[in-house]
Structure formats: C-alpha cells, structure tokens
From TrEMBL:
It comes from Corynebacterium casei LMG S-19264. This is DUF112 domain-containing protein. The chain crosses the membrane at residues 20-39, 46-71, 109-132, 138-159, 204-224, 321-340, 360-381, 393-411, 465-490. InterPro entries: DUF112_TM. The keyword Transit peptide does not apply. The lineage of its organism: Bacteria, Bacillati, Actinomycetota, Actinomycetes, Mycobacteriales. Pfam families: TctA. Keywords: Membrane, Transmembrane, Transmembrane helix. It comes from the Bacteria. The keyword Acetylation does not apply. Residues 20-442 form the DUF112 domain.
Amino acid sequence: METLNNLMMGFGDAFSPMNLVYVLIGALLGTAVGVLPGMGSSMAVALLLPITFTLDPTAAFIMFAGVYFGGLFGDSTMAILVNTPGGSTAIATAFEGHKMALSGRAPQALATAAIGAFTGGLIATTLVVFFAPKLAEFAILFGPAEYFALAVFAFLASAAVVSDSLLRGLISLVVGLLVATVGIDEISGAQRFTGGVPEMFDGIGIIIVTVGILALGEVFYVIYEQTKPVPKVREGKIERARLSWAEFKDALPAWLRGASFGVPFGVIPVGGAEVPTFMAYATERKLDEQRKDPQFGKGAIRGVAGPEAAGNATAGTAMGALLAMGLPTSATAAIMLAAFQQYGIQPGPLLFERNADLVWPLLASLFIGLFVLLILNLPLAPMWAKLLLIPRYYLYPGIAVFCALGVYATSAAIADLWLVLVIGLVGFVMRHFDFPLAPIMIGVILGPLAESSFRNALLSSGGDYSILVGSPIAIGMYTLMGLVLVAAFVRRFQNKRANAKREKEEEALAEL
C-alpha cells in the first residue's frame, strides 16, 4: 500500500503541465536522435544530457524518461525501414522487420515494434515500482568486498558478452579503466596521469567520454566510410503504422515471451539488451519451425515482437538496478548514472529515503513516457524515416557542432573541447577495428567504484585479501561470473564450428 501511495504521489508531480511537456519533448528528441543511422539510444541520451543541466532535477529526469525509451524505438525504426539498426539491441529486430518492410508490410512491422516496446517497458516498469525498494533493502547487505565483486562481475561479463572476441572486449574495458584513473586519487590525494595540467585534476568528465566515444567517434567513422552507399527508404511502403486483430493475436504471445527474457537481464551487468533480444529471436524462430506454415525468412511478425519486447523490458529493469543499487547494467544506464551524479545524487540503497521526491515522479514518468511514445510513434513513424533524406554532408557536421556545444556548455573550458576531440578519435579507431564500446563505458563508470571498494576492503581487514571472498554474496558473484565466462567460451566455440562447417559446405558446392 505504501508503494502505491508513493507512486500516486509521483503521478501527482509528473502530471503537472510543464512536466508533461518535458516528457513529450524527451520522447520526440530521443526518437529523433535514435532514428539517425549509427547513433542509437545510448547516443541519444549522451547527446541530450547537456541540455538538461539548466532544469531542476525532477524536470530533467522526467525528460530523460522520454529520451530513454524514445531512443530505443528510434533504433528499431531504422532497423525495420532500411536494415540499419540504430543500436545493437535492434539487430535481432532487423532480421524479420526489414523483410516485412520489403514485402510492403512496413506499417505492420512499425506497429509491432511500437506495441512490443510498450508491452515490454510496461511490464518491466511495473516490476521496478514494486520491487526496486526491496532490491534497495537487499543492497544494504553489500559492503566494500561485495561491491568489488559486483564491479568485477560487470567488467568481465560485459567484456565477454558484447564482443565476438573476448580479447577485444577486455581491451575496451582496460581503455575505460585507464580513463577512469585520470585525476586526483580520492584516498591518497596523489596526481595520476594528469601531466601537471590543472584541468585534468578532476579527471575526465563522463560527459566528455560519452559524447566523444559514442557520438563524435561515430561522426569520424561515417566520414571515413563515406564511400559506402546510403540506404534509401522505399517510396510507397511507409504508411500509418497499424495492426489487424489477427496480427495482434499472433504477436501477443511473442511480446509476453520477449518481456520474460528481458526482465531478468536488466539487473545483470552484461552491457545491454543484446543477449535477451537474440534469445527471444531464437525462441520465436524455433517455435515457428513447428508451425504448418513457417514465416521466418519471409517477414515473421513474431520475429519483430519478441526482440522488441525483450529489449525494452531489459531497459526498464535496468532502471531499477540503477536506482536501487547504483549499478549501471548497460551503456545507457551508465550515462543515466552520470546524470544523477551531475546533480549530486548517488543512486543506491538510500536513494528511496533521501530523494523520494525525485525517485517516485521519475518512476511515474516512465509509465507516462511509454504511453506518450505509443501515441506519438504509431502515426509519426513515417516522418522519422524522412530524416534519412538529409544529406550526410549536412547531417554529420551538424552532429559534430552539437557535440562541441554540449560539452562546452557544461564547463566553458576549451581544454574539454580538446579532450572530447582526442576521445572521439579513440572512439573512431575502436569503432573501425570492431572493438565494443559498452565495456569502455562500464569501465569509466564502475572503475572508481571497484578501486575504492577494493582499497576500503583491504583497509578494513588490515590487508587480508581473504575478505574479498569472505561472504556468500561475493562468492555467489564470482561463481556467476565464472558461469558467464564459460557460457561465452562455449558460444564462441560453437560459432567457430558452425562457421567452419558452413565454409566447407560452400567449398563443396563451389567444386560442383
């Protein structure tokens, strides 16, 4: 009952006219950035983060509720229309969604994605409302050793899962950790990797890192790859997004199954929704094989419904993990954590007590944001596709200027502009050589937590390293980490065998 009362209080604040305007603006901006090729939901949050700093905390985070889910819908819109997923979480959607678009069913695919996003997000947000406070109570049991185990688990899990190469994932993680060590050591007060430059004493801001790695790095990559053809939207294929009753009944089980995959992965630090979306896709494909008339490969509506619900359910419960434990389980959640820290707010077990006036309006605005996105994007999805008609030589220079203005607005320091340029070049190099970017963000955000927890644990135990594995929670974390690594190695081994078998079959066919 107390939870419902708090939620009603949150709705009372969120339903004020100005806050509803902020949700609407966030939904529009998040979707608009999300539909840009290669940008994606995490970049939408990174790019739009600086413009919220003039708002009060409640208004800023209510606006981010719209940005948060709007960016995810934008990812899927491009995946369906032009087979160009805005983010990695929309890759699974692109397989069947683009086939639906090519066969003249783009409106149905867009409607399936919008309703799937709404369904998955609604289920996950409802669970967050009722269980996040309980998760916060559980988080009180965490001491320095447990938080260190949690951070290490996030490091290795993200490095192992989000990349086809464990080595590349670990290299990306190390880059993030190196960036996190720049500045004044919080415990000893020593300078680290500052080069004696005063502007570096406070470290490299998370805004600089996110905008440089995700946005500016992508701009450089697109300029470098400008010889590639630009995908075109098929004229006459985009109408008002809608579903018939038969199509709705066909998609409903897939939406529910997809949400069941996504909900638990939101609280597991594996770097994003890639795993549950592909699990949902694989499940729907396997079930489709048992039908009399299999649709996969022709444009199966369930192949869009399952991954979409899974991706948004993961995003919803990721917000719960962030609020209750201060744990960012994806790159987007890591940027949201930076937004909290910018206002001097630390998510974690005490957040629901110290900042209840902020948390409950934020949770209420997540519900409002889902409804706003559904109402907006069913009729407006064709309009988002028109953004692809903007010439690249206008679009990407504009993004670069927006990056510079956003970074400069946060600090008014020329040194930050040079930093974001250097980090953008680093992001371009990593993007060019297929290094995953999520481990960098996880390393930058959780690096300080891992270091301080490790050192505090040793200080409290007099230098006894056994304290790091001295509790059931820590042991459980390390055990789960081992299982994730084993699963990652098994998956890669199976992929290599499948690829080798496919190559042999192709060689045999070529000889015939």
